[in-house]
Amino acid sequence: MGRKSQGIKIINKDIRKLAEEHLHIVESVVRKIAPHLPQGFAREEIVSEGIMGLIEAAQKFDSKKGVKFEKWAEIRVRGAIIDYLRKTDILSRPSRLIIKQIARTIKELQNRLGREPQDEEIAKELGMTLDEYRAELEKISNLSILSLDEVIIDPDSKEGKKLYEVISDDNIKDPMDFAEVSNLREIIEKALEKLDDKEKEVIKMYYLEGFHMKEISKKLKVSESRVSQIHSKAILKLRVELDGKINI
Prior knowledge:
The protein is mainly alpha-helical. The chain folds into 2 domains: 2-88, Rna Polymerase Sigma Factor, Chain: A; 91-248, Arc Repressor Mutant, subunit A (Orthogonal Bundle). It is 70% helix and 2% strand. The protein is built from 14 helices and 2 strands, in the order H-H-H-H-H-H-H-H-H-E-E-H-H-H-H-H. It has helices spanning 2-9, 13-21, 23-33, 43-60, 69-88, 93-113, 119-126, 130-139, 142-147, 163-168, 175-192, 197-208, 213-220, 224-242; strands at 151-153, 160-162. Strands 1-2 form a two-stranded antiparallel ribbon. A hairpin with a 6-residue loop joins strand 1 and strand 2 (160-162). Helix 2 (13-21) crosses helix 4 (43-60) and helix 3 packs across helix 5 (69-88).
């Protein structure tokens, strides 16, 4: 919490007031991310990173652009936390290997079958039981908090954007920006079409509507662990579809 006090002291009064009035955004983002962190991971660290992101959001906010501060701040807070988690490398080597193995298997089955493979088919190809495969999906759920926050770059643009920003950004004013984002959005929407209905619903509710896994499980009437599995599989399928099309 030391960083919180330090950060807010060195900025001017108006910016400090704006940040302090919106500390609930940090709490909301942390509450959503925390369940995916490995055991023993210090929650205070990501709170501090989120507060620094909030301060930066307050410093750089321009109300003339027609974007609400809450939306702007949430993106900056989440981005600051994700950057920190990426630097701390929360995914172990075995986790990275199984992520690549499952993604590769999904792609191979898609090519061979000419359709989206079922969980049972993926498990069999991996030499696992269905329960073992779904347990692996649950284990790699840490990927979920990083996936749609990876920076993606349009080949014709020097500016990086977050994947979830491209999906949800309806406040673009500049025609050039709109053209660039529209091109990316078209690629992403085609990739999203490859997901089944439940996977699409989970992605939409988690990233665009801000629901927590627990809330999604209640709405879909399935267990929280099943939501985590569906989410992880959806992310792996998106990465397969976007591979080579954008830098992710």
